[in-house]
Write a structure and sequence with these properties.
The complex is a heterodimer of chains A (277) and B (648).
Chain A lengths: L1 H28 L3 H12 L4 H14 L5 H7 L8 H11 L2 H9 L7 H13 L3 H11 L6 H17 L5 H11 L5 H7 L5 H18 L3 E3 L13 H14 L32
Helix pairs in contact in A: 2-3, 4-5, 5-7, 6-7, 7-8, 7-9, 8-9, 9-10, 9-11, 10-12, 11-12
Chain B lengths: L3 H6 L26 H4 E2 L4 H15 L5 E7 L3 H5 L2 H12 L11 E7 L8 E7 L3 H11 L9 H12 L5 E7 L6 E2 L2 H10 L2 E7 L8 H5 L4 H5 L8 E2 L31 H9 L4 E3 L10 H5 L14 E2 L1 H6 L7 H9 L2 H15 L9 E4 L2 E4 L43 H23 L8 H32 L7 H4 L4 E3 H6 L5 E10 L4 H5 L6 H21 L4 H7 L2 E10 L44 E2 L26
Parallel strand pairs in B: 1-9, 2-3, 2-5, 5-7, 7-9, 10-16
Antiparallel strand pairs in B: 3-4, 6-8, 11-12, 14-15
The chains are: A mainly alpha (277), B alpha/beta (648).
């Protein structure tokens, strides 16, 4: 009887195992193009911010290094909701030097959010000319304010999420621009693990606040913030207290949002050693 | 073989006196502004100018003997540009047919513009040979002379001398530094026309409503005369018959349009070229040492690090707003018929009388016409114009500027009555101009005039905001401290910067000030939090809105750049401490020598010809659309056309 039951249960277990393998396989070897497309379609039609965020998380988890071509294919139909995510994934998962020349071909001057995103991804992949181009456009008084803000945001993302060797250049540019769109990144930079970046962020934040509020004097000692001493928790606390307080001066909350990504990119393969599928 | 004219041409040093010139033609000579853009062109270099002249010579020599006389100005700038050697090299290749196909048909001569102590002189007399001319050009290139030179006097002399040559006469004037000198323009034009000379000019781009000699140097007409030299002339340098925009605004660290390139050449030389069938080649020396506007003016938004301050003009728009080449009197008479023009100069006069700007209007409005001012006088601005201070290091906060950087200030705190009066005058100037812009009437004003009027309105509104900021800061110095809660200041994280200044005892106050420039666009100024709360915020928003509209409307034209130079002031009071009480134990100073024993007079300094100060500036770049070409941008993308229908 027991053996009969076992015999009859084996196919069921096998079926379960097969089903499990079928579903887990994309996660183990990266998302299939169909699945990625499905998720991107879902993201485009996401009803609210929360569900969009969930789908984004799924995409971030699903896409593995080595899927550069699939991501580039997804760029062929730009959409303000999906393209920034795809570009962010490209910047973190693609092979730098190999992808730069391909991604350059996707660069178009309009719309600004698309151009800024591509340039941002290019600079994160190690294209030195991209940061210069972004800086010129972010500083161009002839562009529309909202277009310039896109380029500032792209530089800010580079400063917060870029590789360690690229970030000082981005902090320097952001500190020079002194625009309110850089405030969120500066506040992120105050809690950076590297002291050099914290100093750059503090200097940029002081300059930007000094420009926006010329008749105020800002004293960071009053919030117990020090770049070279104290612990990370106190720095976090100081940065968050400033982030919460700045709207009382009329700074829109949108520009104070953190640019950090909760989930760090997977590091199963080194980006430079990746081979294109 | 020497031509017959060479013998007469050589003793040019025998001066041609002005008195011998016929009376001016008045309004007889006229030029249409619509065709000016066909006269002015931007060559790639001096070589392109030579090629253009050669093309004209090639067309002429088929039927006439042709003389090309090069009238050259040699200065340090031309030496740095290696201009004359380059010119000689090109002439050598381009005029090579003189030895064969053009033999005895084409002739060359070379003259120098002279200097402050000598008139124009012949360096190489008329010759069918190339070599003497080339040698003269190269030699002149090694002898720079930076003194003031009278360009129109040189033209008259050389044109007169050229009459000894029978055939077609082409005079090519090459000058960068002295193209803004003017001396009896209409008489010169008539004389040149009588001499049947075609004048081609190679000179710099004019500055829009150039205020340099009016404000910066206080008018140099008497400067020259004070040395006893009989070469009085007017220095102007603007592109139009008259300065068209007031300069030297209160609470502005720089003359806002000292550095607005007009897109065209100087009025006098343009008129000469146009009326004689010649051309004006705009060719300005590239000087990488000239800082962008924001760096030069110490912009408070970017601390001088902004790199996108350069002027990019749209050729289509420039053609629409070309300055008039009419004689001055005719231009004034025409302009006087336009209601907006009268209101514009009236408003300018009000602003000048109130001390808001340093430059007086060129004409006064009387009985529905514009009349010449009885005595043109310039004055210093109400406060000293700042010297161009070095921009502070990037990232230097406002509150820690070194005292050494304060090269300006010195404006006393006027009493309440005085400030109220200035406010009233500013409002009056605004109302006068605003009404006229709204109801322009007939004859319809030109786009150029409407652009100047709307720009002046932006400037007046900005000045009003600046005056308000000054009043708030001044009142704040008298106010008592208002304790702020810890929630308001985040436990002392943000404190009012003026509160500390207020506590200092001072005999008087000076004001350091910097400007937030619209060079970065109106939205950057909109983000700045000024003093004064909601009413000031509203005024600031309205100004930014107005500026934004004007920037879009005049994109790719000099008025866009002019509006970008307007600044909103940030003030910083500096306490001047009371003098220390006299020390009773200190030794008394020596008595002054008596008046009856003045001693020997100090020796007079030896006479030195006045050296012309350099005027480096960044010229404009003409590109379709008037925007700097971005990498990958669509070159066909253009802003909406500026037509009379949408100009108001």
């Amino acid at each position: 009887m027991r053996s009969q039951r076992l015999q009859s249960g084996i196919p069921v277990a096998l079926a379960w195992a097969a089903t499990l393998l079928l579903h887990a396989a994309p996660l183990l070897r990266g998302a299939g193009s169909d699945e990625l497309d499905d998720l991107l379609v879902q993201l485009k039609s996401a009803g609210n911010e929360k569900s969009a965020r969930t789908i984004e998380e799924r995409i971030r988890f699903a896409v593995k290094p080595g899927q550069t071509d699939r991501l580039l294919t997804a760029l062929s139909a730009p959409h303000p909701r999906t393209t920034p995510l795809v570009l962010d994934l490209l910047a973190t998962r693609a092979a730098g030097p190999a992808t730069v020349s391909t991604l350059r071909k996707f660069l178009r001057p309009e719309p600004a959010w698309y151009a800024a995103g591509v340039l941002g991804a290019l600079s994160r992949l190690g294209d030195p000319a991209a940061l210069t181009e972004m800086t010129e456009r972010a500083d161009d008084g002839r562009l529309k304010p909202e277009d310039r803000a896109e380029y500032v945001t792209a530089i800010a993302i580079l400063a917060v999420r870029g590789d360690d060797e690229l970030r000082p250049g981005a902090w320097k540019v952001l500190g020079r621009l002194r625009v309110k769109e850089g405030l969120g990144a500066f506040l992120d930079g105050l809690t950076d693990p590297l002291e050099e970046n914290r100093k750059a962020a503090l200097s940029g934040l002081q300059g930007t606040l000094g420009t926006l509020f010329p008749y105020l004097r800002f004293n960071f000692d009053a919030v117990n913030y020090k770049t070279d001493g104290g612990d990370a928790a106190s720095r976090d606390k100081a940065a968050e207290s400033i982030r919460k307080w700045l709207p009382s001066l009329g700074i829109p909350k949108d520009v104070l949002k953190t640019l950090k990504v909760d989930r760090p990119p997977p590091t199963t393969q080194t980006r430079t050693g990746e081979s294109s599928p | 073989m020497r031509s017959r004219g060479a013998a007469v041409f050589a003793p040019l040093s025998a001066a041609i006196l002005l008195a011998s010139l016929p009376a001016p033609a008045g309004g007889a000579a006229s030029a249409s502004r619509e065709t000016l853009d066909k006269v002015a062109f931007r060559p790639a270099g001096i070589e392109a100018v030579v090629d253009r002249v050669v093309a004209e010579v090639a067309a002429q020599v088929k039927s006439h003997k042709t003389l090309v006389c090069w009238l050259l100005d040699s200065t340090r700038v031309t030496q740095q540009m290696n201009l004359l050697p380059r010119l000689a090299a090109r002439v050598e290749t381009a005029f090579a047919p003189m030895g064969a196909a053009w033999k005895d048909k084409a002739f060359l001569a070379v003259c120098s513009m002279g200097g402050s102590q000598k008139p124009a002189a012949v360096l190489s007399p008329v010759s069918p040979e190339l070599t003497p001319a080339l040698q003269a050009i190269r030699e002149l290139g090694t002898m720079p002379d930076d003194t003031y030179k009278n360009a129109l006097d040189a033209i008259r002399r050389v044109a007169q001398a050229m009459t000894t040559f029978s055939g077609r006469r082409i005079l090519v004037l090459v000058t960068f530094e002295n193209g803004d000198t003017e001396d009896n323009l209409e008489e010169t034009l008539l004389h040149v026309q009588k001499c049947a000379c075609t004048i081609h000019v190679v000179s710099r781009e004019a500055l829009y409503s150039d205020p340099f000699f009016e404000v910066r140097l206080g008018g140099l007409r008497s400067y020259y005369a004070s040395y006893g030299l009989e070469l009085p002339y007017e220095l102007t340098g603007t592109d139009a018959p008259t300065p068209e925009y007031p300069n030297g605004w209160i609470f502005d660290r720089s003359g806002i349009h000292d550095v607005v390139p007009s897109g065209y050449g100087t009025y006098a030389l343009s008129r000469l070229a146009f009326m004689t069938g010649g051309t004006y080649a705009i060719l300005h020396p590239e000087d990488p040492g000239v800082l962008p506007f924001c760096a030069e003016a110490g912009c408070a938004i970017c601390e001088g690090t902004h790199g996108g301050c350069d002027a990019f003009y749209d050729p289509a728009r420039l053609a629409l707003v070309a300055p008039s080449l009419l004689p001055r009197d005719a231009y004034r008479a025409d302009l006087g018929k336009v209601a907006l023009a009268r209101a514009f100069f009236e408003s300018w006069q009000i602003a000048y009388d109130a001390g808001l700007c340093a430059m007086p209007p060129p004409w006064e409005v009387k009985g529905g016409t514009l009349n010449p001012r009885p005595a043109r006088s310039t004055r210093a601005p109400q406060q000293p114009r700042p010297l161009p201070a070095e921009a502070p290091e990037p990232g230097t906060p406002w509150t820690s500027w070194g005292y050494d950087a304060l090269t300006h200030g010195g404006m006393g705190v006027p009493n309440d009555a005085k400030l109220d009066e200035i406010f009233r005058d500013c409002d009056k100037a605004i109302a006068t101009l605003e009404n006229a812009v709204r109801t322009a009437g007939l004859p319809k004003p030109s786009i150029r005039l409407v652009a100047a009027a709307e720009t002046l309105l932006c400037q007046l509104y900005a000045t009003r905001l600046n005056l308000g900021q000054f009043r708030i800061v001044r009142d704040d110095l008298k106010a008592t401290d208002h304790p702020l809660s810890s929630a308001q200041t985040l436990n002392g994280f943000a404190l009012p910067a003026l509160a500390e200044t207020r506590r200092r005892t001072a005999e008087s106050w000076k004001f350091d000030y910097r400007n937030l420039r619209f060079c970065h666009g109106a939205d950057r100024v909109r983000d700045i939090c000024l003093l004064g709360g909601a009413p000031v915020r509203k005024e600031q928003m309205a100004l930014c809105e107005r500026v934004d509209r004007a920037l879009q409307k005049y994109q790719g034209s000099p008025w866009e750049i002019l509006i970008r130079r307007i600044g909103v002031v940030l003030l910083r009071p500096i306490a001047v401490p009371p003098p220390p009480p006299p020390d009773p134990l200190a030794p008394k100073p020596d008595k002054k020598p008596k008046a009856s024993d003045p001693g020997p007079p100090p020796p007079r300094p030896p006479f030195a010809p006045p050296v012309r100060p350099p005027r480096p500036f960044r010229g404009s770049t003409v590109v379709p659309g008037g925007v700097p070409p971005a990498p990958g941008a669509d070159p066909q993308a253009r802003p909406p056309a500026l037509t009379p229908s949408n100009s108001r």
